[in-house]
Amino acid sequence: MIPPAPLRLRIDLDALAANWRQLRALAGVDAGAAVKADGYGLGAKAVVERLYAEGCRTFYVSNWQEAAALAGHPPDLRVLVLHGIDAADLPAALSIDAEPVLISPEQVALWRAHGAGRRCDIMVDTGMNRLGFGWRGFCTEMFAGMDVNTVHTHLACADEPEHALNALQRDRFAQVVAALGVRGAIANTAGICLGRDYAFGHVRPGIGIYGGVAGMRQVVFPEARVIQCRDLPAGDASGYGATWTATRDSRLAVLNLGYADGYLRGFSDRGEAIVGGKRARVVGRVSMDMIIIDITDTPPVAPGEHVEIVYDLAEAAHLSGLSEYELLTGLGARYERIYT
Ligand SMILES: *Cc1c(COP(=O)(O)O)cnc(C)c1O
After folding, report:
1. For the residues 232-252, what does the mean pLDDT come to?
2. Ligand 1 atom closest to Cα of 131?
3. Which fold has domain 220-339?
4. Is the CB of 154 inside a 6 Å radius of any atom of ligand 1?
């Protein structure tokens, strides 16, 4: 018999759905969803299922293993592999109901040779110099006779609205889209927030769906279990390095949360939990598998009880120095993911 999971991750799928609808409305065009890295740590299958019910029909993963994990999805749903296709992915890829976003002439040759005329997307690089066909001298002949559904590019500086590269990439991309005559897509979450002239025909939000930008609802709520409570007199220290010293007689609770759960050292002496509706701060360093919180001023809590960890992404990012992306994808496998 497996004991109950001592760590929980409550995932508010209604908030997730509301965030996706809000981003789609902001863009005013068809919207997909990035679900790579197991749905940014939430569980890709559950995310896909819920967003499909909301009308989302295009989902982005990084590689064919992630695509295979979504097997059995409805036939009118497209799974797109952002890293494209490598020779090593064949032939397994051909048995997976997903399509590549082709990024290079080599990948086009591979897909022409093995894809049997199947549909694909393509990625064009317009200034980030990450993935895709270069925009300079972009040549549409390479794709003649191929079933290209959408052409993509990705913005390097979308989270800096004033950055000159945004408009430059948009204008370069507009030329590519016009030349190819297929649907264009440029915007991630931050790109959607730049305004409608970045919407083109389709958008690819990710982090915002999961609550990672201002104005979106919190989706993820970690809950840790109290392992032990202890009283200590003023002057005693707590944790590795004895970095925190009690300035008054105090009561502490030790929780089962640590590095493997994405709760990294930056939360030391800064992170917070919610005990009986009151904030309780982390005191001392995060240990590998534990944190210690100060419950002197909170309602009582006992070993075995669960307390919520403050994980509003903007606030947690500010406290820990981690990005919203790291906060989500680092959550780890020890949580029982509970969808509500
Ligand atoms: C991950 C990814 C997205 C989503 O980006 P967010 O910043 O999470 O909204 C969109 N497009 C591409 C190509 C991506 O790799």
Report:
1. 97
2. 13
3. Lyase, Ornithine Decarboxylase; Chain A, domain 1 (2.40.37)
4. yes
